Structure formats: C-alpha cells, structure tokens
Input
Amino acid sequence: MSDEKTDAAVTYSSYLKIDELLTMQQPRSAGPEHDEMLFIVIHQVYELWFKELLHEFDRVRRLLEDDEPHRAQHTLKRILTILKVMVAQLDILETMTPLEFLSFRQRLDAASGFQSDQFRQIEFVLGVKSAAAIQRFPAGSRARLELERRHAEPTLWDAFLRYLSREGYSIPESHLNRDVTAPVEPSPEIERALIELYRKDSKNAELCERLVDLDEGIQEWRYRHVKMVERTIGAKHGTGGSSGAAYLRETVGRPLFPDLWEIRSQL
Ligand code: HEM
Output
C-alpha cells in the first residue's frame, strides 16, 4: 500500500488545524467577562494579518531586487487591501465600551500590543529600525531571533533605492551602501532624483504612489488605534507601561518614507 493511501484524507479541519486554533482563546477574567473573547480574537486576527503582511513585504523586496516593478506593485496592492481591512476591524473593537474593557483590563497585567514582535518586525522592514526594541525580548526567543534577523536586513526603501539606481537614477553610494540597521532618514539628494522621476517616468511614479499609499495606510492604522485608545481608556497609562494615548500620538503622522512626502511641495 502506498503512503498516500494509509494517510488520513486531508479535511478542512486537519488542513487548517481548526481544533488547535479553537483552543487558543483563553480568557483570564472570572466569569469570564463577555467582552474578553472579542478582545482576544481580534488581537489574534491582527497577529495573523501581521504574519501575512511580513510574508508579502518580503516578496515586494525580492521583486524589487529582481527588477520586477509591475509584480512588486501587484503585491503592494494586496498589502494595501489587507491594511484597509485591518483599519476597518478597529470598528469592531470600538463597540466595546470603557466599562466593558475595565471589566477585565486588570487581568492583562503588563500585556500590551507594545510587546508585539511582529509589529516591530513590520516597522523594521519599513525602515523604523530600533536596537532598543530588540532588547525588550528575551535572548534566544523566537521573537528576538526574528527581530535580530530583520534588523540586519535592508528595508523596503533600501531595495527601492537600489532598484532606482539600476533604472539609471542618481542615487549616491552613501545611500546604496548605508548601514541598514539605522532608521530611514530624509535626504535632499534622493528628493532630487524623485522629482526627476515624477516628471518623466510614469511607470516608476506609479510605484512611488503605491509606497505613499502604504505609508498613509500605516499612519491611518496608527491614527485609528490612538483614537480607539482615547475613547476606551482616556488619558490613563497603558498596560505596557507607556503614557498611553500621549505616547501613541507621538507616533502618528511620522512618515515612513519622508522623501516621498517632501517632494510634493516641490513638484
Ligand atoms: C481596547 C483596545 C486597545 C487599547 C485600550 C489599546 C491600548 C494601547 C496602549 C495604551 C498602547 C501604548 C503602549 C502601552 O503602554 O500599553 C498600545 C500600543 C499598541 N497597541 Fe494597542 N490597544 C488596544 C487594541 C489594540 C489592538 C486590537 C491591536 C492590534 C494588534 C493593538 C496593537 C498595538 C500595538 C502594535 C502597539 C504598539 C504601538 C507603538 O509602539 O507604536 N492594540 N495600545
């Protein structure tokens, strides 16, 4: 008998690991409080979307490295569609009132989205590099190893600049060979190249616009998250130990790709 015949047939449940998945929602509050289930499910859903986004960001970077701008744009479109869904999902959590959240909040202890390593990985891929963010995770843990790897990798912006250089744009060596563990900073030389590109190269200008969409999409999520935080906990400190909404407000409106925004007033 072949191995194929002895194996149990794949089912919906075995393929998707439904039994395991459904055991992973474990409320901590007494009762448990009704809204804690929503709180757990929505965070788990976000972590799955974070995983998918990282998978797609790796693809966009590879496609740029392979000089495949059309396919990179196609993948960026998928990423943007996911981001829209991620922003829209905050509406669901906003149906939870401050008192409903308070009914189980103290059971979260110090747990907070602030500790999401996948969110930090997304920031790293998009150029928000921070060695301090890595130190918060235990040495040797999955999270720490992933963050260390991504910290040392070029960002999406680095891959884009290298692609532009191969397309004939004047991108200084200092950018092409920069220390990729440093955050992405604005640059007048890159802005000059981008202005030239926008004026004469509609193919690559489209690609730039998709990167602006991505940047705006992430900013939109940050804005909607802080508004949800304000309406749920007001000015209270976060469970992660930050000043809460005040800390989050500082991260809103900070662009990922500042050059793409700066050139708009010069076009
Ligand atoms: C009632 C709902 C929520 C509240 C009250 C809330 C509150 C907060 C607060 C106060 C912070 C600042 C860090 C801290 O001190 O804890 C934070 C950070 C964060 N939260 Fe939420 N959050 C909520 C839902 C969510 C959801 C559904 C996600 C999705 C994964 C999420 C992801 C994050 C992330 C990624 C950060 C870090 C942001 C950064 O450092 O830039 N949060 N949250």
Remarks:
- The pocket of protoporphyrin IX containing FE is lined by residues 42-43, 46, 93, 101, 112-114, 116, 119, 225, 228-229, 232-233, 238-242, 244, 247-248, 251 (CB under 6 Å).
- The chain has 16 helices and no strands.
- The longest helix spans residues 202-233.
